[in-house]
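Model: You mentioned two targets. I'll fold them one after the other.
Researcher: Yes, keep them separate.
Model: Target one:
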Amino acid sequence: MEYNTTRNKLIIPEYGRNVQKMVEFALTLPDRNERTRFSHLIVSVMGQINPQGSSSGDHLHKLWDHLYYISDFRLDVDSPYSAPEPQIIYGNPAKVEYSTNQIEYRHYGKNISRIIQKAIEFEEGPEKEELIRIIATHMKKSYLTWNRESVNDQLIVDHLKELSGGKLILADTVTLASTNDILTIQKRKSTKSQVKNKDKGRIKRKR
């Protein structure tokens, strides 16, 4: 009797042990043409076992890549696709560098700078003035999320001016939402979220 502990490790388990044995047999065939014909048969079997994505154009290419991988890239046949490089599987992934973007005021978030740059490109007029007001209001909300004390509107105006390089100026006639109103709305949203999460918890416990 053959036990799993005595068998070779399955390279790609979803294809099963029989496919792996077929690949191992293909490696023993001395004639290249015979190996090629047998490899096409193996790929056909693999496609029947794992038909997911068969409608996509690269499905057959993927099966041949898997065939080479199961053979430990030792299979020498005339494939319709070039054999993948072993380095793709066994090589170390490229190092991901940390972002070097410096955020002047972290409490406003990284995206606010992008929004400000887009707003600068707007033509002068009512639409741009409204956009500046919306940005300033958002900045005030973000500031109060970070520091739940009162914030002077002039501070927001100064930060907006600084972040935009002096190109976005909030009109003197514009009044931002009060600190109390913003905090009240934030508190209501937080309360609703907590209630919703509690309701979800009750439903799960009932189930």
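Model: Target two:
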Amino acid sequence: MSLGRGLGALIPTSSGPVPQQTIQKITQETLRQTGEQIFSIPTSQIEPNLQQPRKNFSRLEMEELTNSIRSYGIIQPLILTKVGVDKYQIVTGERRWRAAQVLELKTVPAIIRTMTEMEKFEISLLENVQRQDLNPMERARAYQRLTDEFGLTQEQIAQKLGKARATIANTLRLLTLPESVQQAIETGRITEGHAKTLLSIEDRTKQEIFLKRILGLGLTVRETEEMLKGRAILRSSSSDPWLLEKEKFLSQQLNLRVKIKRKNRGGKVVIEFDSDEELKELINKLS
């Protein structure tokens, strides 16, 4: 199914966001090809799509976006559908709309399109997944919805999102974990790598027990794997509460295990990852 006229030019096709300085040129070229127009829509007439896959918005990301819009304005128009008299629903651009509300902007630039519910959900999911905006549980629920509501197979989902079928299947398996584990993933207290390790345990009670050990001891994925094999974990930890707090903060922001090692006046920050996908996500966040 088509993702909408000209949408491919507005959504990055590789990991990482499109540089801001190129977005305006891309948008204008898309509009020239499709004959669409950018309208100034009153911010008060726009509502979010409650069915969109992304539910959590980072406060830091929102602050950065708000500051950018304050300085440069909204460069990339929102994509909206009309849902009533003087009423529009967001397909893409909810963060921009939220930032506009904070800045008390009266209007925002937008492209108005007619779409089915399937097309709206596909576009919203694709935009968030390509930009690495969804956490693992949001991705899993979105994939499940594509299966339950729209009848797509894992192979079809993989093709639409440009991912391997095994990646889709592994992400969907997260939904079989206990609620406590799912919440830990969603809040960034453990990584998707930790979750995949816990999936190797069949007993749900044991999964919750090992979750507590991971959180209590601050285990890396590799250390978790060693513990599951019954091996002792030998590790050194900082006794500096300030450093421990900063390690926790960075780990939550990056969704990866972070260690800070001090040496005299300096030191180093070690960021651990357990797959090529986690490395790519890390590079995207740092860039």
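Researcher: Noted. Anything on target two?
Model: The first helix runs from residue 7 to 10.
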